[in-house]
Write a structure and sequence with these properties.
By secondary structure, the protein is mainly alpha-helical. The protein has six helices and no strands. It starts with a helix and ends with a helix.
């Protein structure tokens, strides 16, 4: 989780054309601390997360929007595994949803 969070912060920082030094100054932490966060070696405090969000002009939840890194076959397999765990009623509901979704 720390690595994914750090990567997301770094990605957004670069989109805003900010250096680590510039961003660390804006959020009142040492550049080495920001480096540790971005490299997944440290987890930011809630205060730091709020400051990061404000400085990068994003909602804090954006830092936790990670891309799915599964292949189509892995996704298919996961779907089948999860379907096999559903109750009969849940399968009926899923079936009805899929009919609407696919139509």
């Amino acid at each position: 989780m720390k690595k994914k969070l750090g990567s997301k912060i770094k990605e957004i920082r670069k989109l805003r054309n900010l250096t680590q030094e510039q961003l660390s100054e804006l959020i009142l932490i040492e550049p080495a601390s920001l480096c540790a966060i971005e490299n997944g070696r440290a987890f930011p405090s809630l205060v730091t997360l709020e400051r990061l969000a404000k400085a990068l002009e994003v909602e804090p939840v954006r830092f936790f929007e990670f891309r799915e890194e599964k292949t189509i076959d892995e996704k298919r397999s996961s779907i089948v595994e999860n379907i096999n765990k559903l109750s009969d009623n849940q399968i009926e509901n899923l079936y009805d949803y899929l009919k609407i979704f696919i139509s």
